[in-house]
Protein 1
Amino acid sequence: LASLPGVNAFGDRALLGLLKSFAGINRAKSVKLWERDYRVGGGVGAFSVGMSFGMHAGWAVEGAVGSSYKIDATYLSPTVNMAS
């Protein structure tokens, strides 16, 4: 994979985007307010905001999965499953 042109730069940009996303969420005052909100945590402080990322190289199918109450964007493929 490393022999493909542009792969190293692509990986560097993906890592930089991940770090910027984490920093933005941890700095956001509105997110911190939600974490401290009594109503969201059910009075026990059980609510927290979190993210996870996985990087893969290969094919994937993107789509929406869920119900009428909750919909998640997801990617399906063997390489995505191994990355997670």
Protein 2
Amino acid sequence: VFATERRIHARYDLKGSTVGRSTAPATLQAKPSLTRKDLDLQGRVFPVGAAKRAHLFRVLDADLAFLARVGSMDYSLRS
């Protein structure tokens, strides 16, 4: 999906839910390339710097404003 020269070392399928949203550690150890789920992200920290963080939040705010304008809601974006 994304063209990059960087190696993707972990993939996450985020749904904004906690029900059934984890991959067993033993399963991930046996096959590290498996896609992780929402609860597998808990405790992870992604240092991106102040400027990139501010940009990310501006993009999320714009996405939420668009969804509100068209009468739709993506609850996974709400905190």
